[in-house]
Sequence to fold (302 residues):
Amino acid sequence: MTEDRNIWPELNWTAWQGTADTLHMLTQIVGKTRLALTPLQNHWWNVPLYVSACGLTTSPMPLPGGGLLEIEFDFLAHLLQFRLSTGETRSLPLRAQPVAAFFAEYERTLKSLAVEVMIWPMPVEVSAPIRFDLDETHASYDRDAVERFHRILMNCDTLFKRFSTNFLGKISPVHFFWGSFDLCVTRFSGRVAGGPPRPDKIQAEAYSHEVISCGFWPGNGGFGSAAFYCYAAPVPAGLGEKEIYPGAWNAAMGEFLLSYDEVRAAPDPGAAILAFLESTYSAAANAAKWDRAGLDRILDRI
Fold:
């Protein structure tokens, strides 16, 4: 498999952080709508967004009075699209404006569609959160950076789904968590997680069972730049001593990391990502003594 490196565009965190931080808030607003409208699924699988041909979508959400609503970030036309199962539609422009202004437009649009939903206006999983209706700080929108971000998400979505095919156990969809602003896929051993209780009900539900999770941060993950990651929860003893290739163990973060820039420089970026996913999963599964004979399925890579 030979990849064209041109399909893996540059994504410099310093250059696009303002846009990423603003977009993070917008995805939280839409994501909180999905949280409010959908019934709870295991590990909060009812709340993420999904990569689409145009951007990120909620997928269809049930409405209390009947019918469905789908909301999609269209990163090609730079619109937020609202679609009802009745055929009625609305759209909002994605542009440089404060989050507070976007939030006001968003609420008016839902009201015009007769959609009643209570959204807690406080962002989650960010330092120094600002209420959406008061946020005049986040106001950047670089269309080119957003389009490059979308191209990377589409590439990652394809590879993560390919990686998912050789696992027979419980596995999550490939989904975009708007709280942490990352795309990921998670495998489960089938065993209840041990160790001390999680600090809150969110984490308790997310990590109720042993997991190995792999994904992509577009720069916000604490690494200082875009990166692929893999972690195990609970962390098995000796995991940081396991050898992987490519990538390396990051002791400060307690997980394996592969920088996006290293991927772009590789002769075959897609193959490098798959090698990282496979080697980190093997390292974590072996360290945690997962039943690999019962969970793994070996398929030829095409």
